[in-house]
Amino acid sequence: MKYNIIKITLLTLVVILLSSCLPIPHKTQVIPKINGKITSNNIPLSDVKIKFYRSKHDKSNNKFKSVVFTDKNGMFYFKGDKDFHVYLVLGDPISTWSMDIIYNDTVYIGWKEFDIGYADESQIFICELTHHYSEKSLNQGICNLTQ
To answer: pLDDT at position 134, please?
Structure first.
């Protein structure tokens, strides 16, 4: 009987390890904490709306995670977003998130991220509405990542 319990326990551990999942509860960063500034021709813009999306699917369905607005100095802050997981998956996930900037009824792609691994803990952006970007880039937008 004791031998069977040990055998079943070892077999269970082997199956868990081979499945690339470990029962370790944890949180992962999905969207970084973001500090930023929005300008037009280097003039700070106040009351500009910024929408954050967790995925391309959420964006196409207008299912945004959060909305923030710039202050009188053109500054904005987003607290980030984390997911809780019961199992630790071995290997790197694909990280996707994006932010849109809405000013005078015009929507600008502030940034869209497509990367392997978890999102960064925090990022700082300077967003100039007159900037142009290459649509061929995976990470792109009118914002420049400064950190």
So the answer is: 66
Span 28-82+90-145: which CATH code? 2.60.40.10
Write out pLDDT tens, residues 83-140.
887 766 667 777 888 899 999 999 999 998 888 877 888 999 999 999 877 666 666 8
* pTM, 2 dp: 0.77
Tokens of 1: 């009987």
Q: How far apart are CA 133 and CA 139, in angstroms?
A: 10
- DSSP characters over 41-93: TTEE-SS-EEEEESSHHHHHTT--SEEEE--TTSEEEE--EEEEESSEESSPP
98, β-bridge pairs: 53, 112
Sorted by where each begins, the domain ranges of the chain are: 28-82+90-145
Q: Which tokens in the block code for residue 106?
A: 């015009």
Give the model's confidence band at 15: pLDDT under 50 very low, under 70 low, under 90 confident, else very high. low
State the CB neighbour count (10 A cutoff) for residue 59: 20
Contact 70, 76 (CB under 8 A): yes
